[in-house]
Amino acid sequence: MKKDITIEELQLKIEKFPRIKIAHTPTPLEFMPNLSKNLGGPKIWIKREDMTGLAYGGNKARHYEFEMPEIKNQGYDTIINIMDYHSNNARMTAAAANKCELKYILILKNAQGRKVQGNLLVDKILGSELHLLNESQSIKANEYALNLKNDLEKNGRKVYLLQDHLFPRIVGMIGFVEAGIELKNQIEEKKLSNIHIYGVAGRSLCGLILASKNLGLNWKFTGVTVNYDMPLDDYIFRHNNDIKEALDLPITFYEKDLNVLDQYVGEGYGIVTQEVIEAIHLAAKTDAIICDPNYTGTVMAALIDQIRKNNINENETVIFIHTGGLPALFTFSEELSDLSF
Ligand SMILES: Cc1ncc(COP(=O)(O)O)c(C=O)c1O
Question: In 3D, which of 247, 248, 192, 244 has the Cα closest to residue 220?
Fold first, then answer.
């Protein structure tokens, strides 16, 4: 029979990793009374991972507490990161690299000639060395990065190409196992029960699932897909044993632990749907919560739709995980300022 572990045991497993303090934690757990009333369904709470600090906040601030020491302790002095135009990861890695005095080179796919706004504007202000690729260069972005890495290494730099390593793919789960411990304490303090967590189907949610399962908490999880190009098998599920080993956990996560909703993506990542636009406006007009158009707006749209369809029991306590992404709001100013809302 499976044996749950204690909070102290779980915390010790996290503490074996070298760490620097970056994120502002614990992040608040707040009630959304007006949205809950407006929708007339379950009570909705929000875990404010958008308030972690680090150049406009987001889930990644927790990751870099572990990732930066991992990179620095191996003697690397330069990071190369390959990301997409809207990437929040690109921005938050830039901020963490600055704090840790690492040179940061950002290769942004499909970004040449596009608006210097949102995350890209912040990347620029943070002083990232930017390589904005056009569509055909983007297909060979890995080759582009490897050439750059070789040139830098010939000049004596020690270069960490993020996409070449396993740790960056699982570190987000480590940070969110700890967020799970934090959340458990907040849930108890506020005397909440029947917990149903809504968030982006990704690593942060898996971290929370790991915390819930290993501590025997029975939280329920719904993960919302935001990107068809990143199949969840490759993105998260294939790493369930890697994280189990890295954290030396008695139990890991599986597909069945997560109810995946993939009907809210619309045309694809980076193309905002009417439902997401409405969700962003509704969360803002009710409880003054700002969601982003790529990630948290999609989760909010899914949550609103599921409540309106009576698919969530009124006795449940919904906790919406706000994972950040706010600079992207400004990249979508035209779509979001449509006056019909
Ligand atoms: C705002 C936001 N939320 C959620 C995610 C998903 O991240 P993860 O898989 O680490 O949970 C991302 C990824 O970049 C993001 O930028």
Answer: 192
Q: Please state, in angstroms and as integers, the Cα–Cα distance from residue 41 to each residue in 221, 285, 304, following that order.
A: 17, 18, 10
CATH class of 61-165: alpha beta
Query: Ligand 1 mean position to 2 CA, how many Å?
Result: 30
Question: Residue 1 pLDDT more than 60?
Answer: no
Q: For ligand 1, atom 3, which residue shows the shortest CA distance?
A: 323
Matching CATH number, 7-58+168-336, of 3.90.780.10, 3.40.50.1100, 1.10.760.10, 3.20.20.140: 3.40.50.1100
Ligand 1 center to residue 296 CA distance, Å? 9
Measured in Å, residue 308 CA sits from the centre of ligand 1 at: 26
Pocket test for ligand 1, best of 88, 208, 236, 264 (most atoms within 8 A of CB): 88
Portion of the chain with pLDDT greater than 90, in percent: 94
Ligand 1 center from residue 203 Cα (angstroms): 7
Q: Are strands 78-84 and 220-224 parallel, antiparallel or unpaired?
A: unpaired
State pLDDT tens for residues 216-262: 999 999 999 998 888 999 999 999 999 999 999 999 999 999 999 99
Residue positions counted in the chain: 341
**Tens of pLDDT along 191-215?**
999 999 999 999 999 999 999 999 9
Does 119 contact ligand 1 (Cβ within 6 A)? no
Distance CA 28, CA 31 (A): 10
